[in-house]
């Protein structure tokens, strides 16, 4: 709660009143991870039936033993950062490669961890044969619909019973709440969304099926589009189980203020929610002020989740800065994760730990 108040103060004034985490970070030895005191983060989360997850970079998992150790120790939910996307799973038309995705599922199983599926449909990281085939007209609309159906069915069946939540559709709205003009929308029209949910449900009836997007933390045009979509699909007999909030924030912008109200309106619809890709980037170089603000943003999102019974999972998009996607995509920004590039816990690590220790409804 202390951190929520700190986050609120940051929001209100831009001032930095966030002190608790800083003190503990300064007190912590740089190799704190190697001599962890206290319970792993996942043990704190599990007391509240919260899945506390990370995205996993499969190259790092193969090559970096510290990365592997932290992945195993601190999290009870894993998401494939890339290897369950179309370009990896279906590199050639009709040819599936589950090697890397299966390796992630195996790692999770052997460490007693759950797996979030990401993602059955997106407009990015599609295989070249698909995008070029649509562009040059060699793949017709009817064929594209069949390709989508086959991919969703094949992948969801392959992982049936091994995935507790699937991001079924990812990033299907624009900021103003209109449909994203993706290849899927342009070729198939809005009905592709209902179709994708139906096919996923048929293939794996027990997984929780999610919509997922960024910039939908608070109540705004985009999150309202999802709220209306969930209601509309329901009226067509298509059930959506969960609302996924990616949670990619930046310390350059204010903290979204109305997250609790947003989570509540989905909960009132009977829909669970999750934070699915949380990181908080900053303009480089970072300084103490920005690191504290970052910690407050992590706390603010986690606190909102812990205070909503229907918020079931909280996943950070990687945990170590040297593997973050941020510097490659947001020029001049970085340092978005809870450990620095030498695995020293940052103020955001201590803030997350403290929120989890406080638990739900505190
Ligand atoms: C990102 C990965 O982190 C990068 O490694 C990859 O190059 C591009 O995709 N929203 C999503 C994620 O839903 O799949 C994205 O992941 C980040 C933004």
Automatic annotation (TrEMBL):
EC number: 3.2.1.8
Keywords for this protein: Carbohydrate metabolism, Glycosidase, Hydrolase, Polysaccharide degradation, Signal, Xylan degradation
SUPFAM superfamilies: (Trans)glycosidases
InterPro entries: GH, GH10, GH10_dom
Gene3D superfamilies the record matches: Glycosidases
Pfam families the UniProt entry points to: Glyco_hydro_10
Stretches assigned to the GH10 domain: 35-355
A GO BP annotation: xylan catabolic process
Signal peptide: 1-27
Reaction(s) catalysed (UniProt annotation): Endohydrolysis of (1->4)-beta-D-xylosidic linkages in xylans
GO molecular function, one term: endo-1,4-beta-xylanase activity
Coiled-coil residues: none
Lineage top rank: taxon: Bacteria
Disulfide bond found in the keyword field: no
Family of this protein: Belongs to the glycosyl hydrolase 10 (cellulase F) family.
Protein name according to UniProt: Beta-xylanase
Native species: Streptomyces sp. TN119
Lineage: Bacteria, Bacillati, Actinomycetota, Actinomycetes, Kitasatosporales
UniProt gene name: xynA
């Amino acid at each position: 709660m202390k951190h929520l108040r700190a986050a609120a103060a940051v929001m209100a004034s831009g001032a930095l009143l966030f002190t608790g985490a800083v003190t503990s970070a300064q007190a912590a030895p740089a190799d704190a991870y190697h001599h962890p005191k206290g319970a792993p983060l996942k043990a704190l989360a599990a007391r509240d039936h919260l899945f506390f997850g990370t995205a996993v970079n499969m190259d790092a998992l193969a090559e970096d033993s510290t990365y592997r150790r932290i992945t195993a120790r601190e999290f009870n939910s894993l998401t494939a950062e890339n290897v369950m996307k179309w370009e990896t799973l279906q590199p050639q038309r009709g040819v599936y490669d589950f090697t890397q995705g299966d390796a992630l599922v195996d790692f999770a199983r052997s460490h007693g961890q759950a797996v979030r599926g990401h993602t059955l449909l997106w407009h990015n990281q599609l295989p070249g044969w698909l995008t070029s085939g649509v562009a040059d007209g060699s793949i017709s609309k009817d064929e594209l619909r069949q390709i989508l159906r086959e991919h969703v069915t094949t992948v969801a069946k392959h992982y049936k019973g091994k995935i507790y939540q699937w991001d079924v559709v990812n990033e299907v709205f624009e900021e103003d709440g209109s449909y994203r003009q993706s290849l899927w929308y342009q070729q198939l029209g809005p009905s592709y969304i209902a179709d994708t949910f139906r096919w996923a449900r048929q293939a794996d009836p027990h997984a929780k099926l999610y919509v997922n997007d960024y910039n939908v933390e608070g109540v705004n045009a985009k999150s309202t589009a999802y709220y209306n979509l969930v209601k509309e699909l329901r009226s067509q007999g298509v059930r959506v189980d969960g609302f996924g909030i990616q949670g990619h924030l930046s310390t350059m912008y204010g903290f979204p203020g109305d997250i609790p109200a947003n989570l509540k309106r989905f909960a009132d619809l009977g829909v669970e929610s999750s934070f699915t890709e949380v990181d908080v980037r900053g303009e480089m170089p970072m300084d103490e002020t920005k690191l504290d603000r970052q910690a407050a943003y992590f706390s603010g999102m986690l606190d909102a989740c812990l205070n909503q019974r229907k918020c079931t999972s909280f996943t950070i998009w990687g945990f170590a800065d040297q593997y973050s996607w941020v510097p490659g995509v947001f020029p001049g920004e970085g340092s978005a994760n809870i450990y620095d590039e030498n695995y020293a816990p940052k103020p955001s690590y201590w803030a997350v730990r403290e929120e989890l220790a406080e638990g739900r409804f505190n």
